[in-house]
Structure formats: C-alpha cells, structure tokens
Amino acid sequence: MATLSVTSTSSASIRMVPVTNSMTMVRFPRTRAPISLWNFKTSFSSGFLSLSITRKNHKYSFQVRSVAAPADATIGFDEMVSGTQRKYYMLGGKGGVGKTSCAASLAVKFANNGHPTLVVSTDPAHSLSDSFAQDLTGGTLVPVEGPDSPLFALEINPEKAREEFRSASQKNGGTGVKDFMDGMGLGMIVEQLGELKLGELLDTPPPGLDEAIAISKVIQFLESQEYNMFTRIVFDTAPTGHTLRLLSLPDFLDASIGKLLKLRQKITSATSAIKSVFGQEETRQDAADKLERLRERMVKVRELFRDTDSTEFVIVTIPTVMAISESSRLCASLKKETVPVKRLIVNQILPPSASDCKFCAMKRKDQMRAPRFDKE
Ligand SMILES: Nc1ncnc2c1ncn2[C@@H]1O[C@H](COP(=O)(O)OP(=O)(O)OP(=O)(O)O)[C@@H](O)[C@H]1O
Predict the structure, then answer these.
(1) Residue 61: pLDDT band by 50, 70, 90 thresholds?
(2) CB under 6 Å to ligand 1: residues?
(3) Hey, what CATH class is 80-268+284-370 in?
(4) pTM of the entire structure?
(5) Which member of 73, 237, 241, 250 lies 3.0 to 4.6 Å from 92 by CB, making a disulfide possible if both were Cys?
(6) What's the gap in Å between 98 CA and the centre of ligand 1?
C-alpha cells in the first residue's frame, strides 16, 4: 500500500489543510474561500513541508508532514489526474477522520487541473455544504464557485428520499411511488413489489436500499446529456459499515431480483386471480424486461466498483490506534470484495514543534504509537 500523504495544520488561523503537499487546500476563517496551493513555493526537509502564504496582508505559515517523499506524493496525484477517461474516486473510512474535507479538496484539485468534476456525498450525516460554505441540501447538482474547471457538488440524503417515497406511497396509492422511484431509476422494483406490502419493506429497509437510491441517482445524473461532461467523480462515502454495505449492494439486488423473477414465474403460472397482481401478459413481459434491465445495471455498477482502470477507493484515516485498526479491516474487506484500493490518506498528523504544551506532547506521542500500514 502506497501512502499518499499526511497533513495537518500548525496555525490556528487555518481551518483545514487536507490531502497532499501537491493538492493542499486551505480555508481562511473569514472568507472561507478555497485556495489552491499548487503554485506556492514550498520547502521540504526531514519529512516536513513548510508553506508560507501571504494573503490580504496576513501571513499564514504552516507545515505539512508527508510520509511519502514529496516526489512520491506528486507522482501519486499526477497519476490520479492524468487522462481524460472518466474516473471514480471513493473516499471512505472511520467517522470523523476527514473524509469530507479530503473529498472536497481532491475535487477542487481535480477541477483546477482541468477536469470537470462532480463531488457526491452519500453520507446521511452530510458536511459537504459546510466544506464548500454553500447550500447543497437540495438533492440536485450545485455549481461550486472558485475552481478553474466546472465543479459540481451533490448531497444525497437517502433517508429523506426514503421518507418521500413512503409519503408518496400513502398519498397516491402507488402512482406517486412509481413516479418517485422512476426518478431514482428504481421504478421497476415498485411495479414488482406494488402488491407485496412495500410499506413494510420501507419500515425495515434491507441493507443497502438507501445506498441503492444514492447510486441510482448519481448514475441517473451521469447518464443525462447535461451532466455527461464529468471526467472525475469523487464520492464522499458514509463511515465504514455503510460503505461495505454499499459495495455488496449490487450482489444483494442481483440476488433479490433473481428471487423476484422466480416468484413472478410461480405467480403467473397460477390462477387468474393471482395473475391480477402483475396485470395482463404484455405488462408482465414489460415488467420482466425492466427487472432484467435493473439486473444489468447493477452488474454494471458492480463491475465499475471493481474496475481498476476507472475506479479507486481511497481510505482516509488518522494516526490513532483505533482508526488505523479500523482502516486495516476496511482495507482487508475491500480487497476481499476485489475493490481497487492502493492509496491511503493519513490526516491530522500534528506537526513538529519545539515548544509543545502538555496536551500536544501527549497527542504527538499517541500518534507515534499508531501502527503502520503494511506495504501490501
Ligand atoms: N487536516 C485537518 N486539519 C484540521 N481540521 C481538520 C482536518 N481534517 C478535518 N478537519 C476537521 O475535522 C472535522 C471532521 O472532518 P470531516 O467532516 O471532513 O470528517 P468526516 O470523516 O467526513 O466526518 P463524518 O464521518 O462525520 O462524515 C471537521 O471539523 C474538519 O474541519
């Protein structure tokens, strides 16, 4: 496993400094404007990168510690940014380690390197709006101000979507549900489950349903002509457990659809009373075709997440024993699922200081105790 970067701030004036020496973004408390440090002069010695920026007569100095040599880190980012083929970067890890901050900076960096970029949060507890200081809660793509190339951000709230789905189901006796789920690309599930107590299904959603809605929505946006320009898609995913469910989702849906199709076969070969569940012959065929299309789409999603040419899962962690342990388990699970994972961001490392307070000294000692990732 190659280590991409380790970053942290040493100045209280700077709110956030994630990712690498070559793709650092800082936020100033007053303006909250993202600023790329790509062209800033830096010096590097003994594993620490020193940066000094002067902006509006204020001087901000801080250090970034890089586990990888700067050349390695740059090569890492050069690799990520090269080519115009569409690439997906999924950032995941333990809660609170800085996934959103890193996803936001990576997206800005891509956009500043010529890539029309979409950054999507599928985490039910969103903070992408805070990172960009823009309201992204509407569930649609919002242009982010600042970067050189188009950068759009999208927060998907799966719980809200499920809630809308449930109330549509109650209000419109099913038609609203279908319209809503069609919008999510899952209309065919409604057709098949319409008579099978869908409300109950929503009260106890099967693992991955929320994520299914999120993925379908992103795919739907990317398929539209208006948004097919994006060459980099950055996913800020929910904490580890949700992410693993998201990855096993296509298999889950594939199996469920298989069951549904078998069920349909059984029902349609039974009495005419039961036939009414799925309507007349033509409608049945249509529904079966749609299910097949959903199955194909899920296979596509599964292949996409395992495609080393277009997708990469980047684990974000912090240097604590617990976070590194969870990251190691996540890494093992991803590899088991054959998801491409080769980069790790270690965030929030304390920079060196000659005059440590007691708290900082203890924290630094604690960080040094954090186990290291194996090379492989
Ligand atoms: N390198 C950093 N230096 C200083 N503060 C940071 C850094 N990285 C993240 N933070 C701060 O830590 C907090 C958590 O960061 P963030 O929301 O990006 O984490 P997350 O992993 O996405 O969290 P969640 O799991 O809750 O979605 C935020 O207040 C953020 O500003």
Answers:
(1) low
(2) 7-9, 16-18, 95-101, 123, 125, 127, 239, 347-348
(3) alpha beta
(4) 0.66
(5) 237
(6) 4
